[in-house]
Structures are given as structure tokens and as C-alpha cells.
Design brief:
- By secondary structure, the protein is mainly alpha-helical.
- It has a domain of about 120 residues.
- The protein contains 22 helices and five strands.
- Keywords: Hydrolase, Metal-binding, Metalloprotease, Protease, Zinc.
- InterPro entries: Pept_M3A_M3B, Pept_M3A_M3B_dom.
Length: about 550
């Protein structure tokens, strides 16, 4: 009978054995290998329980099992890992191998941030964040006499018929407002918990706490503020130009909220959105053919996922976000999506499978679990670059005109995404450093409105209930991945740079891409970017140059 991985005693004896071992400098490599194997098992247990909870948001037994793991196993693991870290750091005359030096420094910094008071509080925090998935995973949208999932309703909002778009937008907005009070209450709880996490760590605010926790050592909050300003000045006008041109060609006198979806801009010819597939299986076939054209190794990796490591269909009771999970013991990624047949689904699948390739390649190259994947400033490059690297391998499912439309949307998507990314990051900087000790939900709504008017001035809300606009901060990452968003912008800029190089040297760009993934977390962020053939930059001059390149490509 398999061991119950929701019980601490399943793992405790092995942690105790590691803690009690005699540890000399010469013995460290073998001891680390044992610790890594154990850590991988714990990570995998949590990852599988979390994924199962997201696939069955309405199943109380599934939710309780994950909650039990968070409450029973996670706190004890944190304490045991802290003790092992302190044991490692105390070994005299130990010099880490080059491929472990970076993580040794991270271990040291994480140990300094550890506080016993934050162990149980961290369990509370995880449980609170998980409630967001339960609230949104069971969300229904009533439209045209039927109940739809959120992804299905969003698909209706991409109709070339403006009245149909407006009806879908209003139905989705009504549904969002219906759960807004629950999300407001949850955010109040989260803000209190996050303030206390920072206080317990002797830090003035949650931003500074997360800066250390996320190991942000290559840039500063001031760099982020400069990025916000650069996007405002260099990208927002181009985004407005793109959206305004589409509206003019469609004969729209103004751009209303139902005319703007940053993930899928309207077709300037008034055509239906591309629908390259109908079922999840067809999407898998489409992607398989694209990967076969791109690279035999990557195609083989994707083929191996098709036996149970993809859950693509949208259905009730399933968390509505998309992500790639990772099971480190078998070195297997798992992709969760909610597809409804759109070209945007194609892009998102390439994105999430790019993450999967990162897991596969870094896992195969790096035996120690901590050396897999990468720092978060790089982790979206494998996914976003894959969105571009597959562009020239879709001719089997899209004809010339369709491929041109898909490519245009991909390039437009980068431009209109950057203002959203800057807005998300700016909101969080304000929320955790400037909003005061106890900001009200009205304060959050007002700040979001201010930022939205700055970064999306081309959308006309005149005469509409701006409560809907004000609540758009109720987004996945604000609840479940605090301060993780500017990385998307950094990596999109890098992905454009990789694609620019691939236009010149496809084989060389792909080789650099794969080589950088295999490095995992063994080198610094700037070194990872260089390995991929780009620079770690998100300053005004760099952004201006990439926008000029995208404008040229779109022309």
C-alpha cells in the first residue's frame, strides 16, 4: 500500500537521518544528493495535490486533502529544511562546486530570512491564496439562457458582431461583480497576513519581504518604476495606435471595453476569430506537427506528454487559469488549460509547453532539484520564446492569410501586453509600500482606476459603471503570485530579441534557446540571458528599440 503523502511521518525519518548525519566538506555532495531526492518527493506530493485541487475545485474531499498537506506537512518541511540549511552552512572548509555556488548563496539568504513565526502563518497564507481558486473555479456566467465557464464566455466576447461582444462583456462583468465581495474579503485577509509576514522578518513592508524571498538581486524597485514610466511613454502610444487603427478600419467611432481584449485584438477586417481546432485532441495534433517542424527533440518531449500530462478542455469545477506544473521525481511537467477552440488557445499551449520544455531539459541536465528551472526573471523566456519560435511551423493548419493573421496578433499582443504588465506591477508596488497600513477596498479600486486611465487611455468607459473597471485588479497573480508579474514583461522583451535573432539564424537561435534551458538555475540571470542570445535589459532605450522592431514587423 503506497505511503500517505499528506502525513509528515511519511517524510520525517529521512529528514531526521539527514539532520543526524556526520557532515564534512567531503561528504557534502552525497548528502546533498540524498536531500535533493527527498525534497523532490515532497515537492511532487504538494504539486500533485495542488493540481488535483485545481482540477476539482468543487470537490470538498479533494480540497480537504490538499489543505491537510498544507497544514500537516508543509510547516514541518519548512522547519526541517531550515535545520538542514543551517547544518550545511555550518560545515567548515566547504566550498560549493561551481554548479551549486549560486544556490548555496540563495540557501544562505533564505536561512537569514527564515522566522519560526512565519511557518504557521505561511500555512494560513497558502490556504488563503488557495481560496481564490475555489471562488473563481466555481464561477458561472449566465449568457443567452445558458451557464458558461469563464473561458467560454470570453470566447463569445471575441465575436466580430459588436452587439454579441457587448452582451458577453456585460454577462461576464455581472458574473465578476457577483464574486467581487468574496474576493474583496479575501484580499483584506491576505493584506493582513502579508503585512505580518514582513513584520515577523523585521522588514518594513511586504514588497521588501518578497524582494528577498524572490531573490531579486539583479535589479531594484527603482528600476521597476523606471520601467513603468518607459512603458507609459514608449509603449502606450503604440498600443493606442494599433487599437485605434483596428477600430478605424472597422468603422468604430470609439473603443469600448467590449471592443478591447488584450489577449485577442479584434480582426481589422471584421472576420470571425481564427478557430484552428475544435477539441483538445485536435489542438494536441496541431501542436505536435508544429514541434515536429521545429525540432525533433522537443517534438519527442511533447509526444511523451500526450499520455496523461495534458488536461486541456474547459469544464465546470476546473480552475480557469492556465499553467504548467512540474513533478520532479519523474522529471515530468503537467499542463492545465481551458481551451475553447481559439487561436489564443494555440498561443497559450505553446507558452505552457515552453515551460514544460524548461522542466524537461533542466531536469535532465541538473541532478539537484534546486538547480532545475531558473530564477523567475528568466523562467518565462522558455514559454514566451516558444510562442515566436513556432510561428514558422504552422503552415500545415493555417493557410497563408490565416498564418499572417496569427503572426500579426502575436506581435500586437506583445505591445498591448506591456501596459498591462506595467499596471499590474505598479499597483503592487503601491499596495504594499504606499497604500498605508490598512488600505480599504475603495482605496484599491481608486488606485486601479487611476492606473488604468494611465496605461489604457484608449478604452472609452464613458457612461458605464466604472465599478467593473475598478475591480479588474481582482486577478490571479494579485491573489496567488504576489509580485510575480514584471517578469512576464522582462521575458517578453527577451523573447522578441530571440525571435529577432531567429529571423537571421534559426538554427543558432534554437540551439541557444535549448542550451540556456539546460543551465537551469546554475548561473545568474544576466548569464542566462546571454546564453539565450539576448541581454538582461528593460530600460527605456532597450524598450524603444524593440518597439521600433515590432512596428517594422507589423508594417
Amino acid at each position: 500500500m503506497p505511503e500517505d503523502q499528506t502525513r509528515w511521518e511519511t517524510f520525517a525519518p529521512r529528514y531526521r537521518a539527514l539532520q543526524e548525519a556526520d557532515l564534512t566538506a567531503d561528504a557534502v555532495p552525497a548528502w546533498l544528493a540524498q536531500w535533493s531526492a527527498l525534497a523532490a518527493e515532497v515537492m511532487q506530493a504538494g504539486a500533485k495535490l495542488a493540481t488535483h485541487a485545481d482540477l476539482h475545485t468543487g470537490d470538498e474531499a479533494v480540497q480537504a486533502r490538499f489543505a491537510h498537506f498544507l497544514g500537516e506537512v508543509s510547516p514541518q518541511v519548512q522547519r526541517a529544511e531550515q535545520a538542514l540549511t543551517e547544518k550545511l552552512l555550518a560545515v567548515p572548509d566547504y566550498t560549493p562546486a561551481p554548479d551549486f555556488a549560486l544556490n548555496y548563496r540563495r540557501f544562505r539568504d533564505a536561512a537569514a530570512l527564515f522566522r519560526e513565526a512565519n511557518v504557521e502563518l505561511g500555512v494560513t497564507h497558502e490556504a488563503q491564496m488557495n481560496r481564490h481558486g475555489v471562488i473563481t473555479g466555481n464561477q458561472k456566467v449566465r449568457l443567452g439562457g445558458e451557464d458558461l465557464t469563464v473561458p467560454q464566455a470570453k470566447q463569445r466576447g471575441d465575436s466580430p458582431d459588436r452587439q454579441a461582444r457587448e452582451q458577453a462583456w456585460r454577462a461576464l462583468s455581472e458574473s465578476n461583480l457577483g464574486i467581487a465581495p468574496d474576493l474583496d474579503a479575501l484580499m483584506v485577509e491576505l493584506l493582513g497576513t502579508r503585512r505580518q509576514l514582513a513584520r515577523n522578518a523585521d522588514l518594513p513592508n511586504f514588497r521588501d519581504f518578497m524582494w528577498k524571498r524572490l531573490d531579486r538581486v539583479d535589479y531594484t524597485p527603482e528600476d521597476c518604476r523606471a520601467f513603468h514610466e518607459a512603458v507609459r511613454d514608449e509603449v502606450v502610444p503604440l498600443a493606442g495606435e494599433i487599437v485605434g487603427d483596428i477600430a478605424a478600419r472597422l468603422g468604430l467611432d470609439t473603443v469600448r471595453p467590449w471592443d478591447y481584449n488584450r489577449n485577442n485584438l479584434l480582426d481589422a477586417g471584421g472576420r470571425e476569430s481564427l478557430k484552428p481546432f475544435s477539441t483538445g485532441a485536435q489542438l494536441e495534433d496541431l501542436a505536435q506537427a508544429a514541434f515536429e517542424g521545429l525540432d525533433a527533440e522537443l517534438a519527442g518531449r511533447f509526444r511523451s506528454m500526450r499520455g496523461g500530462l495534458l488536461d486541456l478542455e474547459s469544464r465546470p469545477g476546473k480552475m480557469t487559469h492556465a499553467y504548467c506544473q512540474y513533478f520532479p521525481v519523474q522529471n515530468e511537467p503537467f499542463v492545465l488549460m481551458n481551451v475553447v477552440g481559439t487561436a489564443e488557445d494555440v498561443r497559450v499551449l505553446f507558452h505552457e509547453v515552453g515551460h514544460a520544455f524548461h522542466g524537461f531539459l533542466s531536469g535532465a541536465a541538473q541532478p539537484l532539484v534546486w538547480n532545475r528551472w531558473s530564477p523567475i526573471e528568466f523562467i518565462e523566456i522558455p514559454s514566451m520564446a516558444m510562442e515566436f519560435l513556432t510561428l514558422d511551423h504552422l503552415g500545415h493548419v493555417l493557410n497563408g492569410d490565416e498564418l499572417a493573421r496569427y503572426r500579426e496578433k502575436q506581435l500586437q499582443g506583445v505591445v498591448v501586453f506591456l501596459p498591462w504588465a506595467a499596471q499590474m506591477d505598479a499597483f503592487q508596488h503601491w499596495l504594499y509600500t504606499e497604500a498605508g497600513e490598512n488600505p480599504s477596498i475603495a482605496d484599491l479600486d481608486a488606485k486601479w482606476l487611476e492606473l488604468d486611465r494611465t496605461f489604457h487611455p484608449f478604452v472609452n468607459w464613458e457612461g458605464l459603471d466604472e465599478t467593473i473597471r475598478a475591480k479588474s485588479w481582482q486577478y490571479y497573480h494579485i491573489f496567488r503570485a504576489p509580485f510575480y508579474y514584471i517578469e512576464y514583461a522582462m521575458c517578453y522583451l527577451a523573447a522578441v530579441g530571440i525571435w529577432r535573432e531567429a529571423r537571421r539564424d534559426p538554427a543558432g537561435a534554437l540551439a541557444n534557446y535549448k542550451a540556456s534551458l539546460r543551465l537551469g538555475s546554475t548561473v545568474s540571470v544576466p548569464e542566462l540571458y546571454r546564453a539565450a542570445g539576448v541581454e538582461f535589459r528593460f530600460d527605456r532605450e532597450h524598450i524603444r528599440g524593440l518597439m521600433a522592431f515590432l512596428k517594422e514587423q507589423l508594417a
